[in-house]
Amino acid sequence: MSSSTTGLIAGLLLVLIGATAGFGWLLLGVLLGAIGYLIGAHLEGRVDLTSLLPGRRG
Q1: What's the half-sphere exposure (Cβ side, CA atoms, 13 Å) at 46?
Q2: pLDDT at 58
Q3: Which tens digits make up the pLDDT trace of 21-48?
Q4: Core-most of 10, 21, 37, 43, by most CB within 10 Å?
């Protein structure tokens, strides 16, 4: 399993506890899933997020 897929699954698992609480939690799950996917893809080198983050430029 790739890092981006693992990140997506981790983001979705974080919201399982609140999934029954309503539509807002569903949107939170989608947001966390997308963030997890982007972080995983960045770690794999498929997406470059350094332009979005302040700090060192490499």
Answers
A1: 10
A2: 54
A3: 777 777 777 788 788 888 888 888 888 8
A4: 37
Given the structure tokens 């029954």, which residue do they identify? Answer: 20
Q: What secondary structure does DSSP assign to the chain, as a single string?
A: --HHHHHHHHHHHHTSTTGGG-HHHHHHHHHHHHHHHHHHHHHHTSS--TTTS-S---
The type of residue at 12 is L
**Token output for 15:** 């919201």
Q: Which amino acid is at 8?
A: L
Are 7 and 39 in contact by the 8 Å Cβ rule? The answer is yes
Degrees, nearest 5: CA angle 31-33-39: 105
